[in-house]
Amino acid sequence: MALTELAIKNAKPQAKRYRLIDGGGLSLEISPAGGKLWRWRYYYQGKEQILALGKYPATTLAEARKKRDEARAALNEGKHPTREKKLQKLRNQHQGENSFAKVAIRWMETKHTGLNEKYAKQCRTRMEEHIFPMIGDLPIADITIPDVVQVVEKIGNRGTIETAKRMKQLMGQVFRYAAQRGLCQHNPAADLRDILPTVEEKHHACIHPNEFPKLLKAMYAREDDMTKWAMQLLALTFVRTGELIGAEWSEIDWEREEWHIPKHRMKMRRPHIVPLARQTLEILKNLHEITGQRTYIFFSAPAKSKHLSNGAVLMALRRMGYRGQMTGHGFRTMASTILNEKNYPSDWIERQLAHEDDDKIRGAYNRAEHLLERKKMMQDYADYLDAMRMSDGNNVKQFKPALYQ
Q1: Dihedrals φ, ψ of 47, to 5°?
Q2: Is position 202 annotated as part of the catalytic site?
Q3: Catalytic residue among 43, 119, 220, 365
Q4: Of the residues 267, 269, 270, 288, which is catalytic?
Q5: pLDDT tens readout for residues 100-156
Q6: Active-site residue identified among 39, 130, 168, 240
Q7: Among this protein's residues, is 355 annotated catalytic?
Q8: Domains and their CATH numbers in the chain
Q9: How much helix, strand and coil, in percent to the nearest 5, is found in the chain?
Q10: Per residue in 356-388, pLDDT tens?
Q11: Distance CA 35, CA 232 (A)
């Protein structure tokens, strides 16, 4: 006979634990101390199991029957109700810990250990600005594809398509990290290739090679300061602006006449060797007299980072009248353009530019590849820049690689 609320209230404790049967395996267990606990008896793979459904009166008769029916439905689906309850309890306990924001922070702490501090800080700042306000508090296991699409489209609708793409990539990495650790079942950011409009790729501003002699003359005519020497070295070494301004004296090998940039300062996270031409060494020796006792080659007392700021070169070029026409990165473009036009092997040029190799295995070991040839190429190019600076620009057409002369 099915239980009633009145029968449950009137049930008194006895010397031994006993049960009142409701039906369908549901019963109310009454302890000698007077406690009343709901129990559901079922069989899983032929073995008897008991599932606790709550304490009376906190769990009413109607609620106990509902829980029994839900557990029976799970059993019919092949699930183990007792195990499912334990798993759900764990999910509830960790739900706050496994919000997207907290998982993302754990991912960053793991992923970015030992990497560029500026890049790691930038990633966190971007997520705090663009992603966390929308889905940061949601349990990562509950986030769906539409949730991710909403985040990406909202960023893209502001006109910042590149930022939207970067945020999609970051979210994908966080979800992949979470899935590998059992915190979510899938990566909802895995295949969202068509949700953003295609935008025309923008390149760093760079003047035409015929205008380069004029710029070189203007650079060398400037009063001596850090930006003057920085521009000269950017022209002679082809490195990225950030790699130059963060250079340390300990990276210079005077005996080998090489600059060894460690992997944590390189964009591709691989160490890089820059052969130093005679002109480059002369500039470095002059700088050594000024900042040789410091850690950074381009030491700057006013800068919080203690080296020249990333925008210093760009501002210097603007003051020289090259706003929108030339950037620090433009010196890399210039070197690539000239050396390719003069038929230097593209492999040498790409190695010197520290571009990523399509062959990942070869790329991991390419820092010294073609080093002797690159030393020759770098000296040829430095001599060529001297010739350009002393000419009216016509020598651009006359230049031939010394290797082939």
Answers
A1: -110, 140
A2: no
A3: 365
A4: 267
A5: 999 999 898 887 665 567 777 888 888 999 999 999 988 898 899 889 999 988 888
A6: 240
A7: yes
A8: 5-80 (3.30.160.390), 100-180 (1.10.150.130), 209-404 (1.10.443.10)
A9: 50, 10, 35
A10: 654 544 444 455 678 999 999 999 999 999 999
A11: 85
| Structure tokens belonging to residue 135 | 């889905």
Q: Which of the following is catalytic: 272, 329, 351, 375?
A: 329
Q: Where are the alpha helices (DSSP H) in 222-345?
A: 226-237, 241-245, 278-291, 312-319, 330-341
Active site residue 374: no
Q: Is 344 a catalytic residue?
A: no
Enter the pTM of the model.
0.54
Q: Would you call 240 a catalytic residue per the annotation? A: yes
**pLDDT band for position 226 (50/70/90)?**
very high
> At CA 325, angle to CA 319 and CA 331, rounded to 5?
95
Q: Which of 165, 355, 367, 370 is catalytic?
A: 355
> Backbone phi, then psi, for 15, in 5-degree steps?
-65, -35
| CA gap 298, 292 in Å, rounded | 10
What one-letter code names the amino acid at 193?
A: R
In the residue annotation, 228 being an active-site residue is answered as: no
